[in-house]
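Chain A, query sequence.
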Amino acid sequence: MLIILKRLSWVLILLAPAQMLSAEVLVLGSLENDVRRQVARFTPLADYLETALAPHGISEVQITVMREDQDIAGAISSGDIDLYFDTPVIAAKVARDSGAIPLLKQYRNRDATFRSMIVAPVDGPVQTLDDLVDRKIGFEERSSSAGFLLPVYLLDQAGLKLAKLRTRHRDVPAGKVGYLFTGDCDNTMYWLVRGWVDAGAINDIDFRRLDSAFPGQFRVLSESRFMPREVVMQRPNMEHDLSQAISDALTSMHETPEGRVVIKGFSHTDRFERFPDIYGTFQPIFAILNRLISIGMI
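Chain A, predicted structure.
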């Protein structure tokens, strides 16, 4: 299902023909179930880019929100989405399926990177990853890099087998780690505090929040390598001059008062930056992605 959102309104379209978008339209893509939240998030950025890119032939900036990464990949491949914003593992999957190219990385709340952590109560029965066998772990949602994909990779590397549970009241199949989706990181932390799960997957930034609220009460069992907070991908075969103009517009936003207001409202982004080493950044991400695909977890 494809949703094309303009400035102050949005239209739901089951099949959006490619000719609806002219060459003067730049389309920003996002993967999200909550359409209204994405309208609020992307509209100021779309307005800003429309003004900044007008000298480069862009007359309008639209927002396309899709609910499945396969649909995003298809739209990028066909040229119906020009820029795509997401967390690194999902972005890598979309790139693998569409040919999208990494363009920029995104700083949020002064953090350029994050790492995923599997955490558990200090005084609980889970002291190591192996202790999770026959117990339950809370994940955020299936499309979350820090809250699902990276911790699944950590558990796989530890030789543990996972079993999805419909509810937290279900028994865990013998010899496996039962997992449930909590919906978001705040819920994962709440479930941990309430004891509804034996461990939870969150990022290091949220772990600092958890440790601040409950000092010394939770331990880190395992953690991933550092990853970019979020990334911006561009469609393949984008004209070099347009790609350069987009990069210049985004990476200079934090240098002006107007740009700082817009960028701060974009999920507390501080700034966009170019990748110093695209291969070095994404090669390990693609290795993780390939393993997750091979075990049927993405």
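The two ends are 20 Å apart (CA to CA). The longest helix spans residues 35-53.
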